[in-house]
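User: Before I run my own analysis I want an independent prediction to cross-check against. Here's the chain; please return only the structure tokens and, at the end, one sentence I can use as a sanity check.
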Amino acid sequence: MAKSTTSDDDFLASLRRQNAASPGSATAEERSGAKAGASTSRMVLNKPPVVESKLTGEQLYERDQLREEQQQVAQSEESNSDRPADGSLQDITIGKIVTNPRYQTRIRLSEPHVEDLCKTFRATGQGDPIKVRYVNGIYELLRGHHRLEAAKRLGWPSIKAVVCILSDRDALRDSMLGNSSRLDETDYERALNFQRYLDEGFAKNQGELGEAFGCTQGRVSQIMTMLDLPKAILDLLDGYPSLITYRGCKVIKDLLKDHPEHESIIVESVQRLIDKKDESSIKQWVEQMVHLKASKAPGNTVEPHVIPNGTGIVRFQTKIKRRQIIVDLKDNLDDPADIERRVQDLLKAIPEPSREAE
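Assistant: Structure tokens:
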């Protein structure tokens, strides 16, 4: 068998010529000539005229890069004819719209908001369009999750949308900035959005975050403190992001500072909010539970004092509870009204405490 005389360098050179002659890098006239002579001049990549196993690692990398560029050009040629104009307003079939978790900044949809939108859509129509990104023949939702859900529930076949042509990174930035302006976004969702914006490298610090989202650095700092709460509370917020605001977060942090040994009680106080309790009740409830637990601790239990009659039978039993003295009458023959008068006379006879220290 005759040995191939085509060298490795000749093969790479032919790939370069073919890549340079692709429609993405040639003029219209050159592309027309290239198509006319395609049957005689274009190489068939799946039947290379060389022994590729002899290519060096560097040459193999260059070959793969050239082939990838050719595939991108081919995809571009195929999709350009069907691609919608960037920024165009269109009626899009709802079945062609998909949600991408990467561009979803909310944790869950607000059911009341969806219901309100359904009523509005029935009465006046859609109003503001949603925003989608066109990629590979489908439309990825960037903004308008509630509006899309409302349209689905109403059985609409299509929905008005602004179509954008964006890279993955630009689409992510757009969705994060756009969804942060929602009125129904919770403080916890906003905190997660801020942190992700930092993690993605869109901002270097809280000052740049404030500039990007149109708020002060102080506001950014307030919101992001929510991410410093104990994991058990963050787990609750992952399921119920509206449980507390950043103000409730401040109360919780103060309680954790004052009662570090009672974190479980503080976590329970947040869990109570799932049953529609108001976050303003957190502090009072926690302090009550802490006091109750302390009163039941070993060594802190106050035993009742027993006062017997002359025969040794218990006549009275007294017990101190916080600032109260409880007297329990054990003998049914004693008149409660008479005993109360005697106690009152006894209390009046007690000298007042010195108030010099005040």
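Sanity check: The mean pLDDT is 79.
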